[in-house]
Design a protein that fits this description.
13 strands; Rossmann fold; single chain; alpha/beta; 7 helices; 2 domains; N-terminal domain of TfIIb
Amino acid sequence: MSLYGTELAAIHASGFEQRAEAGAATLLRSLIRWRRPVGQIVELACGAGRSSERLTRAGWPVIGTDLSPAMIELAKTRAPNADFSVADMLTYAVPKDAAAITIFNEGLNYPSAEDIATAGGLSAIFTRWREALQPGGILMFDLIGPGSGGEDGSYTTGREGDGWSLVATIEEAVDHKTLTRTISCFMPVQGDEYRRVREVHVVQLYRPETILAALDEAGLNAEVLPGYEGAPSKTGWYTFLARKPV
């Protein structure tokens, strides 16, 4: 099934993109720190465009891609100065000499193990992105790993917003390789009646040492950050900053 249809995309845009905006703030500080010349920032799995809006307001040219057409339509409205398209991050040809590539909000967890293998594995994927970066360019992304399913491996959570509510059941596999999110969205229709939309997301889990090894093999200098500015990493969540050598 397709992920992030119209309803869930709108809910995500309303209540779940704060971390992407925090990631954009962290990236901007890093670009200033290393005095990167202005170049394109490519946002893979860009979501509804909250980080793209922050980056374009700071004067950076932004290209955003996402597999969800609903997300892309929202992003076009939120960040009209960016260039958006529907595309798969694993096959999208990132333009050369990019100043930065981002994958905020666990985008890299979503491709299946089979899709990653078909693309050549993590190190091959990171190598292609390194080749697209300008010298000193930045690859910044976050992932979830084993332990993100909580102490018992499963839990249920909920959230409400303007005109919607959401209940999600999280279940981490016993082998700690995948995590399943069963998401039910409720939107009021009339009186006490609600319309329900359900999506099931199965994502891959990665240990940080696996990611660091793949980044190193791809020729990138990488570190694990404590999180983004104002959004520290929780248990089982990891934030990576990698740079192409100058």
